[in-house]
Specification:
Blueprint: H1 3-11, H2 17-29, E1 34-36, H3 46-56, E2 64-69, H4 77-88, H5 95-103, E3 115-117, E4 137-142, H6 143-150, H7 162-170, E5 173-178, H8 184-198, E6 207-211, E7 222-223, H9 226-229, H10 232-238, E8 243-249, H11 252-265, E9 273-277, H12 281-293, E10 301-304, H13 310-316, H14 320-323, E11 339-343, E12 357-361, H15 365-372, E13 385-391, H16 407-420, H17 428-437, H18 439-444, H19 457-463, H20 479-483, E14 491-496, H21 499-502, H22 507-510, H23 513-519, E15 528-531, H24 532-546, E16 550-554, E17 560-565, H25 566-570, E18 581-584, E19 591-592, E20 595-596, E21 622-626, E22 636-642, H26 653-657, E23 665-670, E24 687-688, H27 689-707, H28 714-723, H29 731-736, E25 747-749, H30 765-773, H31 777-780, H32 784-795, H33 817-838, H34 840-859
Parallel strand pairs: 1-6, 1-7, 2-4, 2-5, 3-4, 5-6, 8-13, 9-11, 9-12, 10-11, 12-13, 14-18
Antiparallel strand pairs: 14-15, 16-17, 16-18, 19-20, 21-23, 22-23, 24-25
Helix pairs in contact: 2-3, 3-5, 7-34, 11-12, 27-28, 27-34, 28-32, 32-33, 33-34
């Protein structure tokens, strides 16, 4: 089957000429550096093109595609596209062409050979994409989500998982940066990473594809050609009717919201989909209030801002008023009411919205271009209108006078002048002609470029030292390297979690909040984000009614301050919450319709903790249950919390026998295939250590057969697989998993009915495995390079040894201190040698092989034990 047939079967559409040409280019000479494809012409089909190329030419294609957008959104096109591709590759016509070739690339059996991690829904930030380094995967995320992980600093993930994510995202990847001109700092960073990787011997380097209509750097992009522009459907979309109308006003602060609302209300009987854009959340809220006062039915008006909590954004997808803006919505013969969607910039990028009409305020040129792209996207209307409100004095203002003091306003003035040149035509073709006419003028009307920070070898090295937790001199937070330095107001994130109100006082020493969030990370659907000033004002209101509520403050480096109350935060310096995540107890309230509202009090305890809630109830990934409640089939225990413990000592036998209190034990479960954790000490049944080592070695062999890199290290990897858990051969460790008294077999995993004990908490079995392996004859017969690789992979298979084990972890109950000191000193030196050899991202990918094999073997052990309690 040729490309055209495969593309049509896979996507449901015949390919445009540019899509066919891009496929041929990628196969013959590699992916271009930059693509200039107008909105509405299927840019996300690059994923389908990559997938076909990977199935047909796996030796030429990266295993993973990372799609980066610069906004958190509700129905990102990437997710919608990939969900369809995952379903379609299993169609009978494509089984032998795509599904089977892709399946052969995977090392572990899976329900679909294409893994997906995304911004929303059941695939939100899951682990399937990083569980098998051989498996094809698409990862969709924001600049923050992807960029922080690339720099070993992933927001919302613990230190143990950070190198794993960096390795998967920084090697063997095609990274597609959508609308790259909107995030020049991130594009600058990606270029620096590419340059650094070119100097290392990492196996499969990152490939960056910049999607932009206005590239700031030099070079000729891949673009439409004459054949494309003669295509009937392309012509239809390029010339989609969008008539511009200008509405000058006097005082923008006082008149804007009412002017936007008046234009919207005038269409109340049109039966059309009306999209409204405003630059600020405040303006969006005021427009919504005006529509409510005009008695526009609330069910016909929706709000979409970047401040909305992810869970509530997901609920929009179930509302017909929102679905009307999606191209997939099919109308029948009945009369439809006018529906309104009021957005900030969250609706500008990565959202496949197509309204009949657009009403908006004046923004910078690149923002206006994105807004125009959300109206009559596919050219189906012949009467679409674009109305925008602007200060009337901007028509006479000299932008150069504002360049220094008011650069944003200077850009808006230039944008207005450029839009006047369109002669009322906001079609994609008109915008393209304007850009071609004077690209420098267009770039001068963009939002000002932030100050771009330069990276260095020292910075990349310090970010890669993930086992050094907390603040480290010379290791700055990564945010300014992702976005640059600008005058934007700092942001704060809010979540609601039950553990905040339960794990207090002495319990925080038994169950450290850092460990709890490592086991049960915050997910995108739990998070609300807004500028820090507005958050602080709402917290001050909330503190008047819930001031004693405890609050966890998670800093950007992952450290947690859990000694604050809401009242203390509200009465302190607002700078203390900037660029942080605040986790509130549900009883504190403050949430309404997905927004932080200080005057709102929750009527039900825990009603706002959605950590276990998923938009798709059939794909429930994790759960937290009390007492004897039973988890869903296939769930694995990852954490048991005994709320009767009041110190970090071992629980007494009397307390262990007290099982009458249903709210004493709180057990956390996860579905292993999409788990966040590397591998729990718990399993569906106990697993013997020898069996586990054999299973991991077998799985490592499979990965090495499929991966196509690190072949020279196969013997080292297999040695590590057969010895990585030798440190579990300690009575101390066996007691910690609750091995029954009298049992003599060494266990790798515990099972149901085995009660873990709080003993030897600081002992690390990886460290013990190094002691067991040091004098092994097989290891000693290897070259120095292979020995380094084998020992480091053992040491790092749970995220430590980058570069060290902490002082309290550097011990082994079965070995003398002289031996353990030598092991502790060798570990960082070995890490440095290997990182120099394979590069930062290459070494992280190497570590992922054993971690993936260990995880797969833990999920599906070849045999289990039945133990008597």
């Amino acid at each position: 089957m040729n490309f055209d047939s495969l593309f049509e079967q896979l996507t449901g559409s015949t390919p445009f000429p540019w899509q066919r040409r891009l496929y041929e280019t990628a196969i013959l000479s590699g992916w271009p550096k930059c693509c200039d494809i107008p909105t509405g012409l299927g840019k996300t089909s690059i994923i389908a093109i990559w997938l076909i190329a990977l199935a047909k030419h796996p030796e030429k294609m990266p295993r993973r595609l990372v799609y980066v957008v610069n906004r958190r959104t509700v129905v990102d096109q990437t997710t919608t596209e990939v969900e369809k591709l995952r379903q379609n590759i299993a169609l009978p016509a494509l089984l032998s062409e795509l599904y089977e070739p892709l399946s052969k690339l995977c090392a572990s059996p899976c329900d679909n050979p294409l893994a997906l991690s995304t911004l929303r829904g059941q695939f939100a930030d899951n682990r399937e994409w990083s569980s098998d380094p051989c498996r094809p995967a698409v990862i969709a995320g924001t600049v923050d989500m992807i960029g922080s992980r690339l720099l070993f600093s992933g927001y919302g993930i613990g230190f143990k998982s950070r190198p794993l994510h960096a390795g998967f995202l920084g090697q063997d990847v095609l990274l597609v940066h959508d609308e790259a001109h909107l995030e020049p700092a991130f594009q600058h960073l990606l270029t620096a990473i590419e340059t650094k990787q070119e100097k290392s011997s990492g196996p499969k380097k990152i490939t960056v594809l910049e999607l932009t209509a206005t590239r700031r750097s030099a070079g000729v992009p891949f673009a439409l050609d004459a054949q494309d522009e003669a295509h009937p459907e392309v012509l239809k979309r390029l010339n989609a009717h969008k008539r511009i109308y200008f509405h000058p006003i006097g005082d923008e602060k006082k008149e804007l919201a009412e002017s936007l609302a008046t234009l919207a209300i005038s269409r109340r009987d049109s039966g059309r989909e009306v999209l409204i854009f405003a630059r600020t959340v405040k303006a969006v809220e005021e427009v919504k209030e005006f529509l409510d006062k005009a008695k526009i039915p609330k069910c016909n008006t929706e709000v979409l801002t970047g401040t909305l909590r992810g869970y509530e954004r997901e609920q929009l997808l179930k509302k017909e008023s929102f679905m009307r803006f999606l191209p997939s919505y099919k109308k029948d013969a009945r009369d439809y009411p006018t529906v309104y969607l009021i957005c900030t910039s969250a609706g500008e990028v990565g959202v496949n919205l197509s309204a009949a009409d657009l009403i908006c305020d004046l923004s910078t040129f690149e923002s206006m271009g994105q807004r125009f792209g959300r109206v009559n996207r596919f050219g189906i209307h012949q009467d679409s209108e674009v109305h925008f409100v602007h200060p009337k004095d901007y028509d006479t203002q000299d932008a150069t006078e504002w360049d220094m003091d008011k650069p944003i306003e200077a850009s808006r003035v230039r944008t207005l002048a450029l839009l006047r040149q369109l002669d009322g035509d906001a079609s994609p073709n008109a915008l393209r002609k304007l850009v071609r006419k004077d690209q420098n003028a267009v770039l001068s009307a963009f939002a000002p470029i932030p100050t771009l920070l330069e990276t260095s070898d020292i910075l990349f090295d310090t970010w890669s030292l993930t086992s050094i937790q907390g603040r480290l001199p010379g290791r700055p937070p990564v945010a300014e390297y992702l976005h640059g330095i600008s005058d934007e107001i700092p942001q704060t994130t809010i979540a609601w979690r039950t553990e905040v109100e339960l794990i207090t006082g002495s319990l925080t020493s038994v169950y450290p909040p850092e460990a709890l969030l490592e086991d049960f990370p915050l997910k995108p659907h739990e998070l609300l984000r807004d500028n820090s000033d507005r958050i602080f004002e709402q917290l001050k209101i909330l503190a008047k009614q819930s001031g004693n509520s405890p609050v966890w403050i998670v800093a950007s480096d992952g450290t947690i301050n859990y000694s604050n109350t809401l009242e203390q935060i509200a009465s302190g310096d607002k700078g203390e919450i900037q660029n942080c995540t605040l986790i509130l107890p549900p009883c504190a309230g403050g949430l309404k319709d997905g927004f932080l509202k200080g005057a709102e009090k929750s009527s039900e305890n825990y009603s706002e903790d959605v950590s276990c809630h998923w938009p798709d109830k059939e794909n429930h990934h994790r759960d937290r249950l009390w007492g004897d409640e039973k988890p869903a089939r296939g769930m694995r225990l990852i954490r048991e919390i005994d709320l009767h413990v009041n110190s970090d000592t071992e629980v007494s036998e009397e307390a262990e026998d007290d099982s009458s209190v249903s709210d004493r034990y709180w057990r956390w479960y996860e579905l292993p295939k999409s788990a966040d954790a590397e591998g729990s000490r718990f399993a569906s049944a106990p697993v013997e250590l020898a069996v586990h080592h054999q299973d991991v070695a077998r799985q490592t062999d499979l990965i090495m057969d499929k991966l196509g890199c690190f072949t020279e290290l196969r013997s080292a990897l297999l040695f590590a697989a057969r010895n990585h858990d030798l440190g579990k051969k300690r009575d101390l460790w066996q007691r910690s998993i609750g091995r029954p008294a009298g049992e003599t077999r060494w266990l790798a995993k515990s099972g149901p009915g085995m009660h873990p004990r709080k003993v030897g908490e600081n002992y690390r079995h990886e460290f013990g495995s190094l002691a067991n392996s040091a004098d092994d004859a097989t290891l000693m017969a290897m070259t120095e390079e292979l020995r380094d690789a084998a020992l480091h992979i053992i040491a790092a298979h749970h995220g430590r040894a980058r570069p060290h084990f902490t002082l309290d972890e550097s011990f082994d109950p079965d070995y003398r201190s002289q031996v353990t000191r030598a092991i502790a000193m060798d570990t960082p030196l070995r890490f440095a040698r290997l990182q120099q050899r394979y590069g930062r991202w290459g070494l992280a990918l190497l570590e992922s092989i054993l971690r993936a094999a260990d995880r797969a073997a833990s999920i599906n052990p070849s045999s289990t034990l039945e133990l008597k309690p």
